[in-house]
Amino acid sequence: MVSVPNVKLNSGKIIPAVGLGVWKTPQNLASQIVPKALDAGYRHVDSAAIYKNEEEVSEAIASWLKKNPSVKREDIFYTSKVFDSDHGYEKTKKAIELSLEKAKSIGYIDLLLVHSPQSDYEKRHGTWMALQEAVESGKVKSIGVSNYGVKHLKELLAYPDLKIKPALNQIELHPWLTRSELVDFLQKEGIAIEAYSPLGNGKKVNDPALEPFAKKYNKTNAQILIAWSLARGFIVLPKTVTESRLLPNLESAEVKLSEEDVKKLDALDEHFVTCWDPIEYPLDSEKKEEKKD
Ligand SMILES: NC(=O)C1=CN([C@@H]2O[C@H](COP(=O)(O)OP(=O)(O)OC[C@H]3O[C@@H](n4cnc5c(N)ncnc54)[C@H](OP(=O)(O)O)[C@@H]3O)[C@@H](O)[C@H]2O)C=CC1
Ligand SMILES: O=C1Nc2ccccc2C1=O
C-alpha cells in the first residue's frame, strides 16, 4: 500500500494529503472510479454540490466500505462545497441539508467548504454562521473555504461571532501559480493549504520545463507536479477518470524532491490560472469604489 502522509487540521481532524478530485467526473464514472481509487489506496475524495456527483461518490464509498470491513468510515475523508448561489444563512442551511442528504450513505461530511467568496459581506457571513452550526450539529466535522484571497480571509477572521476558524483554503496551486503572499498568510494563520488543479487542469502535464525533473527522478511529469505540492506542504487533489493513472498519481507521495529542485520549480511561476480566479473578487468596499470611478 502506498504510504500517503496525513495532515492535522486546526479542527483536530486528520486529512490524507492526497485526495481524488472529481470535478467533471460524470455520475456513472464517479460510481466506477471511486471504488477503484479506494482499491488503489486513496482515502480522500473531493466533491462539491456543483459537481453533481455527491450522491454517487458517497454511495461508492459506502458500498466499498461494506466490501472492505477492515477499513472504517473514519479512515475515509469526504469533502463537499456550498456554491456561490447558495450563499446567505437560510440558503446555506438548505444547501447543507441537501449535501447531507446526498451523503446519507456515509453518515456525515468530513469537510464542507465555501466554494468561493463571490457574493457580499452579509451573505458570506451568513454562510459561515450556517457552516459553524453544521459542525455543532455533528453532521459536518470540519469547515473551510475555497478560492479565498487574503482580504476575504481577513474579513472572515474579523467576524464578531466567529467561533470556528477555517480548517483550510482550497486554491489553485502548481509551479506556474505559486501565490506566495496568500500561502504565507495561510501558514501564519495555521490554516491548511489545499492545492486544486495540481496538473494545471491537465494543461501543464506535458510542459517541457518538467522534463529535467522527470528524468532526474525517473518519474512522470504528473508525479513531479504532485510531489511538488506535497513538498510545499500542501494537501493535493489530482483528478483522473483513467484507472491506470490512479496508482501512479498516488505514488507521487513517495517521491521526495530536493529543496533545490522545489525552488527551481517555484521559479516557473507566471500567474497561470487555468479556470476561474475568485481570489481577486472585490469586497463590498471595493465594489463601492468601482461604482464611484
Ligand atoms: N474549488 C475549486 O474551485 C476547484 C476545485 N478543483 C478540485 O481539484 C481537482 C483537480 O483539479 P482539475 O482542474 O480537475 O485538474 P488536474 O490538475 O487534477 O488535472 C486533471 C486532468 O489531468 C489529466 N491527468 C490526470 N492524471 C494524469 C496523468 N498521470 N498523466 C496525464 N494526465 C493526467 C486528467 O485526465 P483524465 O481524467 O482523463 O485521466 C484531467 O484531464 C478537481 O477535480 C476538483 O476536485 C478544481 C478546480 C476548481
Ligand atoms: O473543480 C472546479 N472547477 C471549477 C470551475 C469553475 C467553477 C468552479 C469549479 C470547481 O470547483
Automatic annotation (TrEMBL):
CDD domains: AKR_AKR1-5-like. Substrate binds at residue 115. Its EC number is 1.1.1.358. It is an enzyme of class 1 (oxidoreductase). It catalyses: isatin + NADPH + H(+) = 3-hydroxyindolin-2-one + NADP(+); (R)-pantolactone + NADP(+) = 2-dehydropantolactone + NADPH + H(+). The keyword Oxidoreductase applies. This is 2-dehydropantolactone reductase. The lineage of its organism: Eukaryota, Fungi, Dikarya, Ascomycota, Saccharomycotina.
